[in-house]
Design brief:
single chain, 141 residues, alpha+beta, VC0802-like, 5 helices, 7 strands
């Protein structure tokens, strides 16, 4: 249930994101999800791709700073309070959430969550019958 997410550190200037997507495209690597957080000088591009190891090799070969992080992905109904339940379950289990990102579509919300203890988070969410997305399923999205 753990998914490998890439974090790529980029200077905050025109063309840097294009460089990353060019490299991935040239290497036939598909992006399933992404998020960009920025400051004045740099940004962190977080993304889930269909072949994380190949992507890391390709990006590092092009002198980009990239790191693999373990995240979990889940699906909730796209209704008020559904995400709140998930966050409460994790909080009650003493699992910290440094960040998350997601989207909703056709009545379901998909979330990617970085937690301090993926194994514990997965156990809690499975016990609460929260739908988790496996890595292989997510890479196919």
């Amino acid at each position: 249930m753990v998914i490998k997410q890439l974090s790529v550190f980029l200077e905050n200037r025109t063309g840097r994101l294009t460089e990353v997507t060019d490299i991935l495209s040239e290497n036939q690597i598909n992006i399933s999800a992404l998020s960009i957080a920025e400051t004045a000088d740099y940004g962190v591009l977080r993304m889930i791709v269909d072949n994380p190891e190949k992507a890391v090799r390709a990006l590092k070969k092009n002198d980009l700073s990239v790191h693999i992080t373990e995240v979990i992905a889940l699906i909730t109904p796209d209704i008020p309070g559904a995400l709140n339940k998930v966050i409460k379950y994790l909080s009650e289990g003493q699992v910290n959430i440094p960040y998350m990102y997601g989207y909703s579509h056709e009545g379901k919300a998909s979330m990617i969550i970085k937690v301090n203890d993926p194994k514990k988070a997965i156990e809690i969410l499975q016990n609460k019958k929260i739908e988790l997305i496996s890595a292989s399923s997510f890479y196919e999205i």
